[in-house]
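Incident log, support desk, overnight shift.

02:14 A customer reports that sequence design results differ from what the structure should imply. Their input is reproduced verbatim below. On-call engineer (initials T.W.) acknowledged and began investigating.
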């Protein structure tokens, strides 16, 4: 019954504090992600992005990193991916490393701290410009 499946989806709008990044998330509450796997995946991505930013500063994602994907290497129980609307473009419709870090903070706030750890699709805006689409699901990158 299609009408029932709509009832198990929750929509969130979230502006990441101290950032131009905001997220529109659709959480599929019938498909949970194990909390420890969600924690490790977001936390490890944040650590790697912070190291990258401290070494090289912020810039557009390298072609090999767009789409940006990270998974829980220990279990394969969580994968996060996001892809710029126009990877390689000269304008702003694409992700930067700082933007990806901000997205991870938003996912942490809404999904982990908010206890909404389910398969989720999301749209990323930088100010008023949609720059990427993403997902967080059970599985590997």
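02:41 Re-run completed on a clean worker. Output:
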């Amino acid at each position: 019954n299609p009408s029932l499946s709509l009832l198990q989806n929750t929509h969130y709008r979230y502006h990441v504090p101290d950032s131009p990044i905001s997220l529109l998330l659709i959480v599929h509450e019938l498909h949970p992600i194990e909390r420890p796997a969600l924690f490790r995946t977001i936390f490890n991505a944040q650590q790697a992005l912070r190291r990258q930013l401290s070494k090289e500063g912020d810039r557009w994602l390298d072609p090999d990193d767009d789409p940006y994907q990270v998974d829980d290497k220990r279990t394969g129980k969580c994968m996060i991916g996001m892809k710029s609307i126009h990877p390689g473009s000269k304008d702003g419709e694409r992700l930067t490393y700082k933007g990806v870090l901000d997205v991870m903070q938003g996912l942490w706030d809404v999904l982990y701290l908010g206890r909404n750890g389910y398969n989720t699709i999301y749209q990323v805006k930088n100010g008023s410009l949609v720059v990427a689409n993403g997902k967080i699901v059970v599985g590997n990158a």
